[in-house]
Amino acid sequence: MFYRPSEGHGLPHNPFNAIVTPRPIGWISSRSKDGVNNLAPYSFFNATAYVPPQVMFCSTGTKPDQDGTKDSLTNIRETGVFCVNVVEYEMRDAMNASCANLAKEVDEFAHAGLEAAECSEIACARVAAAPAALECQVTQIVELKGETNYMVMGEVVGVHMRDDCLVDGIFDVTTYQPLSRLGYMDYTAVRELFSLKRPG
């Protein structure tokens, strides 16, 4: 099968998200200028550079109570900071609860039953029990082609790792089984690893 996205695929559901998988989930926490904490998962997320460490995520939608965007992007524009929280398998239901389309005055930490902890380097909350959290300062917000598509890029200025995830000096993902996004309504968790040695 071949299709041009501009002409449609003719399938019951869009296959694009199922093709580009698995995708790590950036559970993005931010804070409004009025001090309201926000937490939302984004599967258009990844690391982009080592030195200095940098990450990105993309916001691709709108909310009725925001001006053509979502709470996360509004907050980040106002404050210039955000935190990426890693989602473990055991937090899948809390992550899903934070997807709810809630009013901007609602704190998703409270809605999802999560304890918030203050970040160390930025004025933002993080998920206290997350396996890891990356405190970020915004470097760029890029408007992408299409309506309400924005890429947020940030430099990581602080890193939190849960002590039980460190095994013999290695951040061991099998200790918490990171959640990844697949297509449609599907997810997976990393439970098995294998290594390949680079040539040379």
UniProtKB/TrEMBL annotation:
Where does the record place the Flavin reductase like domain? 18-173
Molecular function (GO) terms listed?
FMN binding; oxidoreductase activity, acting on the CH-NH group of donors, NAD or NADP as acceptor
SMART domains under this entry? Flavin_Reduct (SM00903)
Q: Which Pfam families match?
A: Flavin_Reduct (PF01613)
Which InterPro entries does the annotation name? Flavin_Rdtase-like_dom (IPR002563), Split_barrel_FMN-bd (IPR012349)
Concerning PANTHER family, the annotation shows: BLR2425 PROTEIN (PTHR43812), FLAVIN REDUCTASE LIKE DOMAIN-CONTAINING PROTEIN (PTHR43812:SF2)
The protein, known as: Flavin reductase family protein
